[in-house]
C-alpha cells in the first residue's frame, strides 16, 4: 500500500530497539477479549525490549477511539496497533498517522485498506463462518434451526460472518442439516441484552442453535439456555473466551465453541508492527513476518496477513487454555 | 427546650403572658426585617398584628414557629425560652400557624394534607381510616363539608385555606397564628373563620391574627400590636385605637379610601362582552366597559370573576360568546393576541404569573413590548431601558431597573406587573385583585394610578376585587357575580357595600332555580 | 464597584477560566506534547461537533426543558447526507435537505413538548430511540464510507493550522451568543425558563419559542452531522450514540441551570474548552479510559457541588458558633446591628 | 362524594394496563405462539430485573428527582460483590447483605449530592454515572467475573422455578409488593409522596428534605444493587460494562408506567407494568423477527404514546374535577 516507501524515512532513528514505541488501541477498554490480546502485545514488547503502551477509551464509541488515535499520533509512536471500532470513521486518523511516518497495523477489526500497512486477520471470514458452523454441528450433529445474534448492524466482520454462514447453509452439502432464521438480532456486545434476546429466541420450539461472533453474547446465551432449562435442546455457540464458557462445557450445556488465541493474535500484530518499524519487512505481498513461537506468517494481497488459527474448544481441550 | 408548664387560663388580662417576644432582631443581608421587637400575648387573647407590607409580620411568625432563626433575642412560651427546630416541633409544643402562602401537597388527598408529617399510625402503618375520620371531623368543625379523599389540586383557594386551618387546629393549641387568613376568603367564609376563632379563644387558645383588613381587626381584636419597618411601634388594647390611629401608626400618616368624583363624561364603549359562557364555569355574561370608566367586579371568591377575565384575555380556553374591542369583534385565542388588540390582564397571583421574578425590572417591563423593541430580529437595549425608566418614573417604582424583580417588595412587584402592560399602551385593562396584600399607602397610590389611566388617558378598566371598600371607592359601576352568573349591575350611587353583599348572597340561595 | 459586580455576575465564567488555565498547566506537566498550537487546535476540532450540539442543547435547557435525542438527530443527518451524496445530489441541495430534515425532527420534539404539553425528558427519551431507528432505516445497516470530497470539505479542511470545523464552532458560538443576548427569541427564552406561565401571561408566544429552541437545537445537530462526515469520512446510523451525556455535561458545567432561566454561551464555550483540555491532556498521557471517565465525572460533581457545599458548611459553622455563644452575645449583637454600616 | 384524587390515580394506572392488553392482543393476532403460558412466563422472566430496578427508580422519581446512575450501581455492585466473595464460601452466602451495603453507600452519595450539596439530580447522577462506572473499570482492571466465581446458590436461584414460576419473577413481585406497601402504608412512604408533590411545603410540615431525599436514594441504591446481583447471576459473565446504559430502559419503564417525572404521583405497580410493557415489546418483536432497529422506533413511539395518554387522562381528570365543583355549588 501507499506507505511502503515511508518506513525508510522513519527508520533512521529506530535502529535501536529502545527507541521503538508501539501503542495498542483496542476498540474500547474493559472487554475481556481485548485484554487478553493486550497481554500478547505486552509479551511481544518485553521480548523485543521496546516501549509498549495500551491506550483507549472505555466508551464503545468511534469518536472516542478517534480521539485516542489523535492523542497517540501527537506522541509520535513508531507504530499503532489498532482494532477499528468503525473502520470508516477511524481511517482518516490512521491515514494521518501514516502520513506522519507512523506504522499502522490493524488487528481483529480492519480499517480501510489504504489506512493501514497490514491487517492481521485472525480468521478469514470464510474460515470463521465454517468454523462456527462446524462448532454448531459438534454440539448436535443432527443439525437444526439457527438464530444469529450480532453485536450491531454496523460491525462489518459480524455482518460478513452471518452472510457467509447463510450462504454455506444454502449451498454447502456439509451443512445441509442446518437451517436459519433470516433476521439477525443485535445485542451490542452487552451481556444483559444478549441474555434477553436468547430467552426470547428460545420461544421458537424448533430453535436448535444460537450463534454469535460476539464473545459477550455466547456465554450470556448459554446462561439463558440453562436458565430456561433447555440444555440439550438449544446450544449457544460461536466465538467466546474459554474462561467464560468453562462452566457450560463442564455441565454439558455447551459441547463446542470456537475462537482463536487472542493473546497470540496481539502478539503477532505487535511483532508485525515492530518488523515494519525496523524495516525488516514492508507491507508488500509475500513478505514474511517472523512472530517467534507463534510461527511465520506471509503477507497476502492488500496487506492482509492471515493468522487463521481457529481453535475449537470442547470438553477435551478446554482446560488447556487459560484465557 | 420545650415548655410543659400548664396553668389554668382565663380570658382577659393575665399576669403571666402566654407568649413573650423579647428583643427579637432579624436581618436579611442589608434588610433589617425585625429590630428589637418586644411584646407579650396573654392567654386566651386575640392579638392582632398589623403593619405595612414588609413591616416584618411574617418574619416574626417564621421565627416563633421555628421556620427561621432570630439573629438575637428570645421567644418565651409560658415563661420559658423556646427555640423550635421546625414547625412540627412548635406544634407539639402547642404553637401552630397558618402561613401567608398556602403550603399544601397538590397530589395528595385533603386528609393526608391535614396529617402529613404526623400521620396517625397503627402498628407502624398509616391508619387511613382514622386519618379520614379525623380530617372530616376537623373540617366539620370549620363548617366545611368536602370530600377528604379528593386531591388538593382540585380545590379552590378558599378550600385550600380551610385545609390549612384544619391542619393548624388538629392539635391542642396554646397559640394559633393566622397570617392574613381571610385574604382569599369571601365575607361568608371569613365569618365562619371568625366563629372558629371565637370558639378556640373561649377554650383558652391565644390567637395572633395578621391582617390588612381594618374592619376585621376592629371586629375581632382584643389587643393590637403595630409594627413599622421591622420595629415595634405600639401595643394597645383595641378599644384605645381607632382606624385612623392604626393607620397613622402603621404608615406615619393617615390614609383613607375616599371616592374621587368623576369630572369628565364617559367615552365610547371600548370593551363589549356578549353572552360569554364557559361550560360549568360561567354562563351568559354580558357587559360593556366605556373609555374612561372603571368597572368593579365584586362577588364571592369562586364566583367566576377571575375565570371571566382570563377568558377575555385568552389565558384560558374561551367558551362561546362574543368579545368586541373598540368596535371590532375579536376571538380571544391567546394573551399575546389579546395584548396586541389592546386588552391586557394583571393576574391575581402576582408572583406566579404577574412578573418573572429572577429577571431584571427593565426586562420585565419590556417583555410584552419585545417585538416592538426589535428591528430585523435584534433588540435595542437602549430603548428597552428607556421604556423601563419611563415606567419606573410614572408609577414611582422604588427599585433599580437592573435588579431582579425578586428583590422588590410586594407593592413594587405589583407596580412592575402593571408597568409592563402600560408600556404597551393598552386600551382595556383587566385588573384582578390589583391591591391584594398591598399596604394602605401603596394601595391609595395604585388607586390614583387607575383613576388617572381611566380618566386622563381614556382606558377602559375592569377591576376584580374582594375588597368591598375598595370596590365602592374606586368604581364607576359595579358588577356582581355569583356562581358563574352576572347577578347585578349597580351604578355607583346604588352600590353600597350592603347592596353588593346582598346581591352576591341573595342569588347564591336561589341557585336551584337556575341550575 | 461595577467591576466587582461584573465579577460577581460572571463568577462562574471566571471560575471556568481559572480551571482551564489550571487544566492546561496540568496537561503541560502530564505530557511534553501538549503545549503546541497545532496539537491543541487539532485536538480541539474533535470537540467542535459536541460543542456545537452543546450550544443547541443550551437553548433548550435555558427554557427549562431538555433534549436527549440530539445525538440521534445527528445520526439521521449524517446518514441522510451520505445517502444523498451516494445518489449524486449536489452538495448544496443535500445540505439544505439535511438541515430541513433535522429541523423537522426538532420541530416534532418541540410540538410534542410545547403543544401537547408532554414532559420533555420523556418525549426526547422516546425520540432518542425513534430517531436512532430512523437513522438505521435511512442509512441501512452498514453505513457509508468513501464520500466525495465536496461533501467532506466542512469537516476536514484546514485553514493554515486552524481546522475549518473549529471556525464553524466559533462562528456558531458567536451566532448563539447573539441569539440569546440580543434577539426577542433570547429574551423570551430566559423569561420562559424562569416561569413559563408568567411568560404566557405576558404575551410571550411560549409554544412557538419552545418549538424554536428545539428547532435550533436540531439544526446544530444537523450542522454537526455535516462536520461529522468531513471529520470521519463516513456515516453510520450509530454515529454519536451515547454522546448526549458528554454534551449535557458541557452545558451544565458551563453554568446553564438545568432548571432553566440561567446560563450563557460564553460559559458553555469555556466548559467545552475545559473538557477538551482535560481529556486532551489525559489522553496524551495515556491515562486509561476508565480513569478519564472517573475524573470527568468527579469534575462535574465537584464543580457544581463545591460552591453549594462551601455555603452550607459556612452557614452551619456560623450557626453552631452562634448557638454556642447566643446567650452571652445578645447584647453585643444588638450593638452591632445598631451601629451604622 | 366522589374521590377524584384516587380516581385519577386509578385511571392513570388503568392506562398502562389497557396499553399492555392492546399490545398483547396485537402480538397475539399475528403470532399464534405468543399467547402461551410459557411465553407469558418468558416475558415476566425477562422483565424481572428491570422490574426490580424500576421499583427503586420509582422511589427517587416520586421525590421529583432522577437516578441516572442506576446502571452503574448495578454494574459496580455485581462486579465488586461477586469478585470479593468469590474466594470465600462465607462471603458467598452473604452476597445479598453485602450488595445492600454497597448499594446503600452508593445511593447515599447520590442523595448527599442532591440533598445536601443541592446539585440538581440529573446533574449529580450524571456525574456518579461516570464515577461509579469508572470506579468499576478501575477496580476490574480489565478483568471479568466469570460464571465460576458466582455463588452456586445464586445461579440456581437465577435459573430455578417454583410451581413453574421463575424465582426471579417471584423476587421481582416481592420487591414491588414491598416497595408498594412501604410507599402507600408507611409514614416514610407517605412523606416521599408529600415531599415530591411540593418540596417547598415540606419544611412547613416538619418533613426534613435532606433525610427524605437521602433516604429515597439509599433505598433506590439498595434495590439497584439487588438488581445488579440478579443481573450478574443471570448473565453469568460480568465485565466492567455490565448494565451500561441501563438507565434509559429504567427511565423508559417508569415513564411508560405513569410515574410522573416531576414527582409526587405514580405507583410502583404502574412502573413495574411499564417494565413488562418493554419486555413484551422485545419479546413480540424478536419472535416476529422484526429487525432490531424497528424495535428502537417502536419503543420510542410507545414512550411518547404513554406520556401522551397520561397527559390526556390527567387533563380529563382535572376537567371533571373543576366542573364537579361548580355543579356541587350550584346544587
Ligand atoms: N427570606 C428573605 N430573604 C430576604 N429578605 C426577606 C426574606 N423574608 C423577608 N424578607 C424581608 O424582610 C422584611 C419583612 O418581611 P415580612 O414578610 O416579614 O413582611 P410582612 O410584614 O409579613 O409583609 P406583608 O404584609 O407583605 O406580608 C421585608 O423587607 C422582606 O422583604
Ligand atoms: N427577598 C428579598 N431579598 C432582598 N431584599 C428584599 C427582599 N424582599 C424585599 N426586599 C427589600 O426590602 C425592602 C423593604 O420591603 P418592603 O416590603 O417594606 O417595601 P416597601 O417600601 O414597603 O414597598 P411597598 O410598600 O410598595 O410594598 C425593599 O427595599 C425591598 O427591596
Ligand atoms: Mg410596603
Ligand atoms: Mg407577611
From TrEMBL, chain B:
SUPFAM superfamilies: P-loop containing nucleoside triphosphate hydrolases (SSF52540). Keywords: ATP-binding, Cell membrane, Membrane, Nucleotide-binding, Repeat, Sugar transport, Translocase, Transport. It comes from the Bacteria. Residues 19-254, 266-508 form the ABC transporter domain. Its main location: membrane. SMART domains: AAA. It holds the Pfam family ABC_tran. It is a peripheral membrane protein. It is found in: Cell membrane. The keyword Acyltransferase does not apply. One of its GO terms (molecular function) is ATP binding. The keyword Ribosomal protein does not apply. Gene3D superfamilies: P-loop containing nucleotide triphosphate hydrolases. GO terms for cellular component: plasma membrane. PANTHER family: CARBOHYDRATE TRANSPORT ATP-BINDING PROTEIN MG119-RELATED, D-ALLOSE IMPORT ATP-BINDING PROTEIN ALSA-RELATED. This is Sugar ABC transporter ATP-binding protein. It comes from Pengzhenrongella sicca.
UniProtKB/TrEMBL annotation, chain C:
It comes from the Bacteria. The keyword Membrane applies. The keyword Cell inner membrane applies. It is a multi-pass membrane protein. GO terms for molecular function: transmembrane transporter activity. Signal peptide: none annotated. One of its GO terms (cellular component) is plasma membrane. Pfam families: BPD_transp_2. Keywords: Cell inner membrane, Cell membrane, Membrane, Transmembrane, Transmembrane helix, Transport. It is found in: Cell membrane. The chain crosses the membrane at residues 43-61, 68-85, 91-114, 121-138, 158-182, 211-230, 242-258, 265-287, 293-311. This is Autoinducer 2 import system permease protein LsrD.
Automatic annotation (TrEMBL), chain D:
It comes from the Bacteria. It is found in: Cell membrane. Coiled coil: none annotated. Its main location: membrane. The keyword GTP-binding does not apply. Keywords: Cell inner membrane, Cell membrane, Membrane, Transmembrane, Transmembrane helix, Transport. One of its GO terms (cellular component) is plasma membrane. One of its GO terms (molecular function) is transmembrane transporter activity. It is a multi-pass membrane protein. The chain crosses the membrane at residues 12-30, 42-60, 66-82, 94-116, 161-183, 214-238, 250-281, 293-313. The keyword Oxidoreductase does not apply. Part of the ABC transporter complex LsrABCD involved in autoinducer 2 (AI-2) import. Probably responsible for the translocation of the substrate across the membrane. The complex is composed of two ATP-binding proteins (LsrA), two transmembrane proteins (LsrC and LsrD) and a solute-binding protein (LsrB). This is Autoinducer 2 import system permease protein LsrC.
